[in-house]
Design a protein that fits this description.
By secondary structure, the chain is of the alpha/beta class. Helices cover 26% and strands 20% of the residues. About 3% of the residues have low confidence.
Length: 232
Amino acid sequence: MENNNNMGELKAQNQNKKQVRLFYCMECEELAAKVAAQSQLITLQSINWRNFDDGFPNLFINNAHDIRGQHVAFLASFSSPSVIFEQLSVIYNLPRLFVASFTLVLPFFPTGSFERMEEEGDVATAFTMARILSNIPISRGGPTSLVIYDIHALQKVLVAHGAAKVSAYVTHGVFPKRSWERFTPKNDEGSEKGFAFFWITDSCPHTVKAIGNRAPFEVLSLAGSIADALQI
């Protein structure tokens, strides 16, 4: 009887959770697979990311008719200006396909550090991006839910004296111009002269692919956290 009760409780819990159709950009294919592996309630959906001869996007949402009335999400990566337009084109279109709700997961908000105007003439691109995301069309379920991890934080705690080993953690390992190479051991240099561990998340797919299994980097996946956020 106890086993039957447990099964009944699990079924009731699943009935209260959302079945989510998850689309993703090409950069986030690996992370999307990890997210889907976290829950049977998350199903991956695909998009044909093509281009016309002039380089502009030629996009197609596969099986668009199947997502009517469904809870839909999109896993984005705005890693460079060149990929933002094609993803925004999809992001603006998905809520219009009669979906029950739409969630945008943007782990790393790339313009987050450009929110201040120091002098007349400065362009606060963070505000521009915020306006763009604020104007995503509403779905049948209402406004878009936006999931972002740590928009921007300037503080970082450093141990200056007396530590036998020093490690570091950043949410978003951007490392422009392969600056991550400055933290890898050189020649016979060991971890005692650098970071013992440097933890990052997989919010920036390009960096994850670049560092591979190189010490001292270790990647902590956001997959479980994203899967939970899709149930909110």
